[in-house]
Design brief:
single chain, about 375 residues, alpha/beta, Aspartate Aminotransferase, domain 2, Aspartate Aminotransferase, domain 1, 2 domains, seven-stranded mixed sheet, three-stranded antiparallel sheet, 14 helices, binds pyridoxal-5'-phosphate, transferase, pyridoxal phosphate
């Protein structure tokens, strides 16, 4: 129950453990082509160009920046924590002049603040972390990307802890790059960088003057490969991770079978159950309001008198959760991921384990209070 890698479905793991086909095998060509199409559907981005590349989420971030940003371009970072700082670092390395709009840890800048900044002009790109995994903060991403689109600024949305878990309509909202990694809500073991780029993003890349500063990230290398597989032909630039791509195809198929709206609302319902439990146990969340609270993970302060040893106590109760990550608050909170195949049973097992660990650590709460609160949300349909 950590915010990635998450637990994976049997069928996904079987695809990963199957014998590796040649990347030119007709069966693999079909699989890769279908996975690319399914990625578009999961991002609700029928007009986007998908890229599926060996790497982690950080490579997906770098790929977006390397292809869109030229030295001297101005970039606005909507900063909600650790992964927004990472995006800024990547932007700066690629020569961008970075401006931050920050909120205090646990909060997100408002659409109005960001819009006012963008209106002063000069920005080529705006980056947003959909869910900041360090704080559990959900950015007001719909309003942000719509504002950027209205002002002709390219938007890059880091969906690594959100894609296929949090509501996102890439085409309808006009987001230019949505990026993620395989191991979070997409439900595939670590190893894939996933990017969907709008026609506007592709046009900005085509119109650039400076060459892309990384061969491995360059869309000029990858676009012909993605187009070939989508068209039923093999092509080679760098060996595709055939087993991971097969596993991705299986997982995306399962996600689409559940349905995007059903999947988004399942994540919301489970997150509500967790929130009810934390509150019944007298715990406080990092996110400062419900509006900025993610549905894919919980970030929860340790109560008075309880420290980071709680994570080990919860593990002894049979559930793996994560400690803090935000540099300013690291030792003061824990994180519980609730993505992908998580169901009501996982909520109850996890809340039960945290509750027992808290009581053992000396926290005063009524045994069963968290479980009852979670169950009352789960039972109300
Ligand atoms: C996990 C995560 C990343 C980094 O992904 P890696 O696969 O670890 O490189 C980036 N952004 C967000 C929001 C994340 O949650």
């Amino acid at each position: 129950m950590i915010p990635g890698p998450v637990e994976f479905e049997e069928e996904v793991l079987r695809a990963l453990g199957a014998p590796s086909l040649s990347h030119t095998d007709p069966a693999f060509i079909v699989t890769f082509g279908r996975a690319l199409q399914r990625l578009r559907e999961v991002c609700l981005a029928p007009s986007a160009q998908p890229f599926v590349v060996s790497g982690s989420g950080t490579l997906a971030m770098e790929m977006a920046v390397a292809n869109l940003v030229e030295p001297g371009d101005a970039a606005l970072v909507v900063n909600t924590g650790y992964f927004s700082d990472r995006m800024a670092k990547i932007l700066e390395r690629h020569g961008a002049k970075v401006t931050h709009v920050r909120a205090s840890p646990g909060d997100a800048p408002t659409v109005e603040e960001v819009k006012a900044r963008l209106e002063r002009g000069g920005f080529k790109v705006m980056t947003v972390t959909h869910v900041d995994t360090s704080t559990g903060v959900l950015a007001p991403v719909e309003g942000l990307v719509k504002a950027a689109r209205a002002l002709g600024v390219l938007s890059v949305v880091d969906g690594v802890c959100a894609t296929a878990g949090e509501v996102f309509h890439q085409d309808a909202w006009g987001a230019d790059v949505y990026l993620t990694a395989s191991q979070k809500a997409v439900g595939v073991p670590p190893g894939l960088a996933l990017v969907t780029a709008s026609p506007q993003a592709m046009a900005a890349w085509k119109g650039r003057k400076a060459p892309v500063a990384s061969v491995y990230s360059d869309w000029a290398e990858w676009l012909p490969i993605m187009e070939a597989y989508a068209g039923g032909k093999p092509s080679y630039f760098a060996t595709p991770p055939v087993n991971l791509v097969s596993a991705l195809d299986v997982s995306l198929g399962q996600i689409l079978a559940e349905g995007m709206e059903a999947r988004f609302s399942r994540h919301q319902r489970l997150a509500r159950a967790f929130r009810a439990a934390w509150s019944a146990l007298g715990l406080r969340l990092l996110p400062v309001s419900e509006a900025v609270t993610a549905n894919t993970l919980s970030a929860v302060y340790y109560p008075e008198g309880v420290d980071a040893s709680l994570v080990g106590r919860v593990k002894a109760e049979g559930v793996v959760i994560a400690g803090g990550l935000h540099p300013d608050l690291k030792t003061r909170y824990f994180r519980v991921g609730h993505m992908n195949r998580v169901g009501p049973g996982d909520v109850l097992v996890t809340v039960g384990a945290v509750e027992r660990a808290l009581l053992a650590a000396g926290h005063r709460a009524e045994a069963g209070a968290g479980l009852r609160a979670a169950e009352s949300v789960l039972a109300a349909r």
